[in-house]
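Hey team,

Sharing the SNARE associated Golgi protein run so nobody has to redo it. Sequence (192 residues) first:
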Amino acid sequence: MKLRVKFKFLIENMLKGLLWMAILAALYLLAKEYIIDENQEVWLERFYSRPLIIYGIYIGSEVFFGLFPPEFFMLWAYYKGDVWHYVGNVVFFAGVSYAAGYLAFLIGRYLRRVVLFRYFGRKFFSKYWPLFRKYGSFLIIASALTPLPWSAISMLVGTTEYPMKRYLYFGLFRLLRFAVYGYIIYQTHQIA
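Structure output:
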């Protein structure tokens, strides 16, 4: 019975993730059709000629609790070059995201020993601690695969006594998300 509730939680969040991706894709296609295509030279010059800025924004976003969905960066990478350039970018984005989650986990491990954190942590993580107590490893998997905040959940897990090896193992689902979403984005553009 308890396992069924955890799987239901995981599936619900995966469906939310797919819905979120569909909304992002629709918004992107609308923006491309009505804004970008009208001023293509301006947009191409602004975003595609400065990849280091884009990579910096992505790294900052992943380290600071996923300010921007990674799918935006995958869309950028699709138009940046050929298929191997796209695959390389998706692999880079996945590696950065996994590493950012691990860094957040380590920060959480450190913070749990800081007395001041006990006060601020309760305010910051109050929404997620009950979820972690209820779903445990499934929360890690759900945040790795869905729009749940990966770095924030990773930090939360770090503040508990959760084993590092198990966290790293379940965190590998983050790489699966990038592979699946990257493939979907690529195939969507091949059809369009």
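The chain has eleven helices and no strands.

Ping me if you want the raw files.
A.
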